[in-house]
């Protein structure tokens, strides 16, 4: 039984250069439905099951003073200390759609027997690594 102290993942927030472009990119490249894009283009949300993928500008005056400025990867040789992993029933078709819509291929889908999964990697329009995988085989 869950207690009042067990968290639920509410949002995964990406700090991006252009919220509207990122929302459009993720919707087209990865197959998400847009839940919301505010008129100021300072906040956007995608429907993602029980949680939400959200986007906000990398320069957040509301939080920069509290937690520091956001640093995006400086080149393809750098990546943040986390990655988004998206799971698909047809990984190869999903990977192809992502690349056709502007995702930069990093590693073509391949079987990872030790993981029980087929996995490929792309970068989004801000250089963030997105891992695309099949459902894990039992």
From TrEMBL:
Residues 8-135 form the VOC domain. CDD domains: VOC_like. It comes from the Eukaryota. InterPro entries: Glyas_Bleomycin-R_OHBP_Dase (IPR029068), Glyas_Fos-R_dOase_dom (IPR004360), GlyoxalaseI/FosfomycinResist (IPR050383), VOC_core (IPR037523). SUPFAM superfamilies: Glyoxalase/Bleomycin resistance protein/Dihydroxybiphenyl dioxygenase (SSF54593). Pfam families: Glyoxalase. This is SEC14 cytosolic factor family protein / phosphoglyceride transfer family protein, putative isoform 1. It comes from Hibiscus syriacus (Rose of Sharon).
